[in-house]
Amino acid sequence: MNNQRNQAIVLLTFLLTGLITACSDDDNSSPDTPNVTLPSTSPPSGSDTPPVASHPEVVQPESGGNVEAGELAFKFHRNQTEKLPPDAQKHNQEIVGRPFLISFFRKTTDGSSIEEISKLVTWTLLDSTCEEETCYKISPSNQMIGLSEGQLTFEVSYGNETTTPINFIVDQALKTCGLVDNIDNNYHEQTCLHIIEGKSGEAQSKWFTEPPRKEVISDVLRYTPDNSPYNTDYTHSGYASLDGTLYTYMRNDGHAENGISDAIGTQSQYARYCQDLANIEFNGRNNWRRVNRQELSDLITSEDIINTYGWPYQAYYTTSNIVDESHVDIVTLIDGHTPYWLSERLSTQTLPVCISENQ
């Protein structure tokens, strides 16, 4: 009899424990389950597998709209910068000439899934503080680009579905440090990007940007730090104090916004930075690209970039010359004007220089 009573007590204890656990799990569940989850391009912590873009799942977008209720939803993708409020980068904030990173979603006609329709929506301007005649444009990929500093309010629609009004903040454009070849090194205190014009060889008549200083990358372009091989979007790999000035490092590896690198170096931090200058048409040009070994070598040997233009001396400058799947040609200076070439890993933190040819 005692054995039967003991077994009954054990069974009752087991059942009560399971019931308590189930109730506890229910209490801890979130009552507001989101409806749209956006693709992630970040690998799991410690993973060696490159990120792969995934299709949106049924979760609520963070920025607005309830797709489960039949509304058109939107989601900003802009990374937050290292600055603290009120100077921190906002999701709906970009500089003049740069596309806003925003996606739009709706529930499919049969209601079975969520689909992205960013390339199919129609943009309608509701209000603007821009003082120019043309304040924005819609790119061929249907992205909105601000053309003048100010605030814009849009309504975005697809068929009979419409978003709530969406506000966009357009910051001032990236400026040059005076005229090309300006030798007033006081610009090191300003948030501008200096340009040198090559005088001989493969550098002849081409424009070269200085290695970007921290103020330019952080305060104007609003890049975020990411020193991982999976870096994407507007990122850099860190800062270094060189000759008393903080300069920005970038890597020769990385991924496009969709999480895929289609060729060695072409979607790296360095390549994306130069492409960003092209997209915003820095100093009126849209063909900025990575500099190659010969172009940079001819600039160094024909110009005193150290003493005349204040470029850092003890530093590695990178190029577009990929040696193999894991190495790139970089250069350092022996005496200020003699290049010394090295082959370093794509992950090496180097100073980026972009180049533009006469159009």
Structural commentary:
- The protein is of the alpha+beta class.
- The protein is 15% helix and 28% strand.
- It is built from four helices and 23 strands.
- It has helices spanning 2-28, 214-220, 269-279, 293-302; strands at 35-37, 57-59, 73-76, 93-95, 102-107, 114-116, 122-128, 136-138, 144-146, 150-158, 161-162, 166-171, 195-197, 207-209, 224-225, 235-236, 238-242, 245-249, 289-290, 317-324, 327-333, 339-345, 354-356.
- Strands 4, 7, 10, 11 and 12 form a five-stranded mixed beta sheet that branches. A four-stranded antiparallel beta sheet has the order 13-14-23-19, with helices on one face.
- It starts with a helix and ends with a strand.
The count of β-strands is 23
Largest sheet geometry:
5 strands, mixed
Count of DSSP helices?
4
- Give the N-terminus to C-terminus distance in angstroms: 99 Å
Question: Could you state the order of secondary-structure elements as H and E?
Answer: HEEEEEEEEEEEEEEHEEEEHEHEEEE
Average pLDDT, rounded to a whole number, is 80
Strand fraction band? 25-35%
The value of Rg in angstroms is 26 Å
- Given as residue ranges, the uncertain stretches (5+ residues, pLDDT < 50) are 1-61
- Which geometry do the CA atoms define? elongated
- By secondary-structure content and strand pairing, the structural class works out as alpha+beta
Name the helicity range.
10-25%
